[in-house]
Structures are given as structure tokens and as C-alpha cells.
Amino acid sequence: MSGIKQTGEKNLMFFSGRAYPELAGEVASHLGVDTTPTTLRDFANGEIYARYLESVRGCDAFVMQSHTEPINQWIMEQLIMVDALKRASAERITVIMPFFGYARQDKKGRGREPITARLMADLFKTAGADRLMSIDLHTSQIQGFFDGPVDHLFAMPVLVNYLKDKLDLETTTVVSPDTGRVRLSERWADTLGTPLAFIHKRRDLDVANQVKVNEVVGKVRGRTCVLIDDMIDTAGTICKAADALYEQGATNVLVAATHAVFSDPAVDRLKNSRISEVIVTNTLPLAEDKRFDKLTVLSIAPLIARAITEVFNDGSVTSLFEGDS
To answer: Rounded mean pLDDT of 121-138?
Structure first.
């Protein structure tokens, strides 16, 4: 069946764009529904066309799209899908973006810069979204950019459950690769019951993706270090952080991150680094040429499906994370 129907009440319908149908299929399977049949195609000049093949009137619509490469095309497609739902009289529209495109542009670091994360929120609100759902936003303040509910999901339970079976927590330290990830790393350290360290770095504002690591603050000598981050883009930060930890006497370094963006030359850097394992979730698709022996990919689909169920049933999304919000 293509939805869950409650007679005289609510009707859940799940929709997916073309960016990452495999993840959408996983989520639909956990929900026990089919993805609603949708026509999506490109015109010769690149314009996108969308039409739903079933009535969506009065439904509780959940529209999922992973903002992967080419990111602007898939964001536009999701906006068009939301507009089509609004004009077809969907009762409530929840936009699910496992990876929030443009999340790093969440503030003005210097004059004459945009705040593109805010623009993203405004675009989806204008298109007709009533609610946003995303996983591990680059900063929590992005929740305030959208005029409506935002379900900020955390991949930490998925990653932590995997690591607990691999690590000797008595000799493990959780490490933040920069001061901006300290709050997230504190939550990890509290959950695992381990010490916390962080790396002080300086970034060249005039050169994208260039990082200079300065010093390690915390207890890492003779210990296994788990570097935590929300995303790995070109892997420059993570690889330099791992080198700094080994220089300070760490015996082993693992990396745990939610979003595997893996822009070039990330794969080569990670393959040739001293990092023993890179653990990520499948919020973004990974082509075969971006997979390597040290990479472990965990499925985020069960978490998304549970969050959708809670929203549909007017339950508590916060309860999924044992009080973290």
C-alpha cells in the first residue's frame, strides 16, 4: 500500500525525490508503506517537472530529498515537490532533508556575505512546508531560521551503539576537531563515559577548505581517540586533526561523522591517512568510487522512520534521544 490511512482522521503519504531513492526505499520499508508514485523529469533546458499520480488531498505529506551532488538541482526539485503538494491541497507538509544543504553558511563571518542557510529555510516556507526534519545540523541555531517546527534528529545513538562494541572505553577519549564541535563532543563523552579533548585550529578565511591545526587540549597520550564531526567534506580538518593526535601520543584514531560529503580529494586523503576506521551514516549516497576499506556506513533509515511515525502520531521526537533536544 502507498500510505497509512486512519478513517476520518489522518493519512500518511511518503514522497521521495530522485537524489537518493535507495534511502527513501529503506525508510518506506521501515514505515511499512510504499513511496507514493510521482512523475519527476527534466525538460531539455534543465527545468524540473513534478506530478503526483495519486490524490494527496488532506494527507500528512512527508517529502524526503538528500541534498547531494548536484546539490542545487535536488534542492530545487524538493521545492517544486512541496509546491505541488501545497497546490494539491495536502493538509500538512513535512520536508525531510537528512543533510541540510548550505548549512555551513549560517552566519556572516565577514561583511558582504550571505546567510544562505536562512535563505534555504525561507524558500521551503514559501514553497509551502509546514515542518522541517533534518539530521545533525551544522549548528543548532538553524532551527530558528524556519518559522515553524524543526525536528533536529541526532545520529549519535546510531554511531555510539556501533562504537560501544568496538572500543575499550577505559582507554578511549572523545575528541572534537575544533572548538565549534565541542558541545556535540561533550554529549558523546557523557554518553560513552570517556574524557573529552579538543583541537584548536586556525582556518584561512581567504582559502576554502584550508585548515592549520595548532594544538591538542586534553588527555590523548596512550589512548584510542574518536574524532567527532557532523560532516566530512574534503577531509582536510579530520586528517590534520588525526595527525596532531598521533603526534601527541595517541595509539589509535577513529573518525565518526554523520554526513559523508566526500568532495575531492577526501577519499584519497582518508585512504592514505593514519586513521584506522571512518564511520559514517548513509544520509548521503556514496558511489562505489567513494568507498574504501577503512569506511563503515551505518543506516540512518530506522531513525528517520521512527521520527516520521512520532510526528504523524503527534508523539515526541525528543523521546528518541532520551531527553536530548
So the answer is: 97
